[in-house]
Amino acid sequence: ISASGYLIAGDDVNTLTVSGSTFKENGGLYGAGIFVAGSDFTVSDCVFDKNTAFGKGNMTPNNNNGAAIVVTDTGKDITGAITGSNFTNNKAQYGGAIDICEGNIAISDSLFVNNSADVEGGAIDIDSAINNPVVTVENSKFVNNTPQAIHNSKELHLGIETFTDLQNAIDLVDGILTLDSDIAMTDDEAAGFVNGVAINKNIRIDGKGHTISAEDLGRIFSIGEGFTVTLTNATLINGKAD
């Protein structure tokens, strides 16, 4: 499907379901592929390629969000699922592929490649001035999304259990990283994390009361010079420095 402007508007309907479809080279102010406003939705086995959320002339702010999918602010407690879908070469100001402002949204088994945002969230932007979206991402791959794969200022769950998971999550996410469970370094990871998980960006990590243990196998974190890392609600144990 190719057109100008968003193609499918889930506006206060019971459930929006889209499957096995391709959205290519569509343009609009936001949500050039799918615009969800207060509806439960499911998107499965779809392709979103070269969609663009373009500007409103010289109006400020432009807020050109989510070239492929926008889940906009309505103040409703919706649920959404995005599964088995590919997002490639999409571009917006915020959330190059997906912009999420509300609901409990699960993203799984999906691929995000070469998506870009002018400001934040090359693949996914999670933000809202009035709502508190909760987003879970599982079994999905992110490649060459700029300026970063995911920007989160609300609640994001990535299923982090090991130091490798934690390193991958820090590399993917800008803003706030939320821990879902206790994290422990494994014997197999020890050689790669002698100096701990490397942090070379400004980031906030909310431990949600969980423990990060190096199991006496290495350091826990190695923070690059000049970066600000804020760690809250976490217990760090069993770190070892040579």
UniProtKB/TrEMBL annotation:
Source organism per UniProt: Methanobrevibacter smithii DSM 2375
One GO cellular component term: extracellular region
Report keywords, A-Z.
Answer: Cell outer membrane, Membrane, Secreted, Signal
Q: What is its main location?
A: other
Q: What is this protein called?
A: Polymorphic outer membrane protein repeat (3 repeats)
Compartment(s) of residence: Cell envelope; Cell outer membrane; Secreted
